[in-house]
Design brief:
616 residues; 52% helix; 10 strands; single chain
């Protein structure tokens, strides 16, 4: 069969391989183990394998349940959603919004007792693959429930939940998240909106302006963050951020006209103003002065879903582009027969596989009992998938050439829509700093005693360190317990897993060196921190795809052989997604050697590398 024929056959059926390989009772993944912070442990050279091996699964009951939603929703987006019209008119039609409400999409993660679907994070991610087929709708729904009402679910009292969640779940009321201000973007702690407690202590007077608020013109319920005066335990008076649940009906709430945006034009984005809005004290969300923690918890909990959403979009993108490439002829050959075009499809398939694996692995962690801290993992999914989306849509447009640049085709709209992914829910630059510094802080707490001994010149510690580095330079055999008879992976991916173990070991050695060299001043070394974050993102991507591919091999999933078919030491992932698109036999490019890359990080001067990534 020709390459084009294989490509057509592959894109004709697209079951969710990650979900099929992604145990538990309905609604909730069940497990008895207590979750550890997987990503943080990587900074110490430890792979908490029980957290990531085997790849999380869903029960057959849960799979049957989610499939009841998938069919009608997929049919609606395929047959009734006119994305071009939404983009051109700059709004989502009322009838489309009403159908979204009837499908239950405004209450996907709202608990059933409050009228929602009560979906687990894994099931929510699966539906996100479909909803992402229209960028404006995806952003509208995400702003409503991933951040708009999420604070209620995470920090709300039972009274607050009973009062607000039922109407939010049905879509009768739409929610918005109000944090960003004209002078406060990534520096959320610098907001100027203020809430003053009344003399009778029954309500707050809230005043201030918020910008770039998605659903700002549609929302009836707002999660608003403002400065309040707080008396600490030592009797000192400080300004701290407090979160509030604000109804439009409280009065003093107005919004500006919708912003004229580059992409996601159908979503409603505008300024929201609060002028002496009376907010009852019972509408404080969480603790007074605890608003910053609420905001961070909300944002951290929702970022993971971007991975499945972008993967869903990329699958559709591959399908559309493959159809064109198999029909378009140049030089008497189909475009799909040219190596450089095949390379672009390989890139898209690779990125989709990796981000889907990362997203469902993170969702599985979040579904474990005990509210595990997956903030770093979620941030890594967001960074990788947003940048992957931008790159892949650009490559798909390139395959179509001038045709892809025309507004009569969806590629230019998808390119515009995907650009925002690198900005909202935390810019990728800020998230890279967060990923690196959070992990380094964790390692620092544990390694402080050893680092202090090295600085004091403790002979035993110094000799031990010299001996370890000497063994490293001579070629150490790293075994973190993932392979062998008691290992967690299938033998077919053992070579790649050993490379992962080696990467993790040398990463931890570099972390210790960085902490010894920079100490607390590491916070100012952004070029170094960027490289630390990039390495950690790659390590997590490697882990996710190796876990997924290994699971596919063990249970014999359809197309499992494609997931491990390349005999290369490629570190990011087995080359092909499931269902796989058969590409030429050459392996994907592997990541730079871990030893060389991490050694380069250690040698980066404090002024950085002038922005030249090649120094890594």
């Amino acid at each position: 069969m020709s390459w084009c024929g294989l490509l057509r056959r592959a894109v004709a059926t697209r079951p969710c391989g990650a979900l099929m390989a992604a145990a538990g009772s309905p609604r909730r993944l069940s497990a008895s183990r207590t979750s550890r912070a997987f990503a943080k442990e990587l900074f110490l050279g430890t792979i908490a394998k029980k957290e990531v091996f085997p790849f999380p699964e869903v029960s057959q009951d849960e799979l049957n349940e989610i499939n009841q939603f998938v069919g009608p929703i997929e049919k609606f987006f395929t047959e009734e959603v006119d994305s071009r019209k939404i983009d051109q008119e700059g709004k989502i039609p009322k009838e489309t919004l009403e159908k979204l409400k009837r499908l239950g999409l405004f209450g996907m993660q709202v608990p059933e007792e409050y009228g929602g679907l009560g979906l687990s994070n894994t099931m929510y991610a699966r539906l996100g693959e479909i909803v992402s087929l229209d960028g404006s709708i995806a952003v509208t729904l995400a702003a409503h429930q991933a951040i708009g009402l999420k604070g209620l679910i995470l920090a709300g009292t039972e009274e607050q939940k009973a009062k607000y969640l039922p109407k939010l779940a049905s879509g009768e009321h739409i929610a918005a998240f109000c944090l960003t201000e004209p002078a406060s973007g990534s520096d959320a702690a610098s907001i100027q909106a203020r809430a003053v407690l009344s003399e009778d202590k029954k309500y707050y007077l809230l005043s201030g302006s918020k910008v770039w608020i998605t659903n700002g013109g549609l929302a009836h319920i707002f999660t608003v963050f403002a400065k309040t005066t707080v008396v600490d335990s030592d009797s000192s008076v400080k300004d701290k951020i407090t979160a509030f649940i604000v109804e439009r009906d409280f009065g003093g709430v107005t919004n500006g006209k919708p912003e004229d945006k580059l992409g996601i034009c159908g979503s409603n984005t505008c300024e929201v103003h609060f002028e002496n809005t009376r907010v009852p004290v019972e509408n404080v969300l969480g603790e007074v002065g605890g608003g910053f923690k609420v905001a961070m918890n909300v944002l951290n909990s929702g970022r993971f879903s971007m991975g499945s959403a972008v993967a869903g979009m990329l699958k559709k993108l591959i399908e559309m582009t493959a159809e064109y490439a198999c029909m378009r002829k140049q030089f008497n050959r189909n475009l799909s027969e040219f190596g450089l075009i095949q390379e672009k499809f390989a890139l898209m398939a690779q990125k989709a596989y990796v981000m889907e694996s990362m997203a469902y692995l993170t969702a599985g962690m979040l579904d474990q009992p005990g509210s595990p801290d997956c903030s770093i993992e979620a941030a890594m999914v967001k960074v990788f998938s947003s940048e992957g989306a931008w790159q892949c849509v650009s490559e798909a447009l390139q395959i179509l050439g001038g045709t892809g640049y025309m507004k009569g085709y969806p590629y230019e709209r998808m390119l515009r829509d995907s650009r925002i992914l690198l900005i909202f829910e935390g810019t990728n630059e800020i998230l890279r700093m967060y990923i690196a510094l959070t992990g380094l802080q964790h390692a620092g707490h544990i390694l402080t005693a050893r680092i202090n001994e090295l600085k004091r010149g403790n002979v035993t510690t110094v000799l031990e360190t010299i001996g370890r580095r000497l063994r490293d330079s001579l070629g150490r055999t790293v075994d973190l317990g993932l392979t062998g008879k008691l290992g967690a992976v299938h033998p077919s991916v053992a070579d790649s897993v050993r490379k992962l173990e080696e990467n993790v070991y040398y990463f931890s050695r570099t972390v210790e060196t960085l902490l010894l060299r920079f100490g607390k001043t590491i916070v100012e070394e952004q070029m170094v921190l960027k490289r630390v974050a990039n390495i950690l993102i790659n390590l997590y991507g490697m882990t996710a795809v190796l876990s997924r591919a290994s699971r596919s091999m063990r249970v014999g999933l359809r197309n499992h052989d494609h997931e491990v078919s390349q005999p290369s030491p490629a570190l990011l992932c087995p080359p092909l997604p499931s269902p796989a698109i058969p590409f030429p036999a050459q392996p994907f490019p592997s990541l730079p050697s871990a030893k060389k890359a991490l050694k380069a990080v250690e040698q980066v001067p404090s002024v950085g590398c002038g922005g030249d990534e090649s120094c890594l």
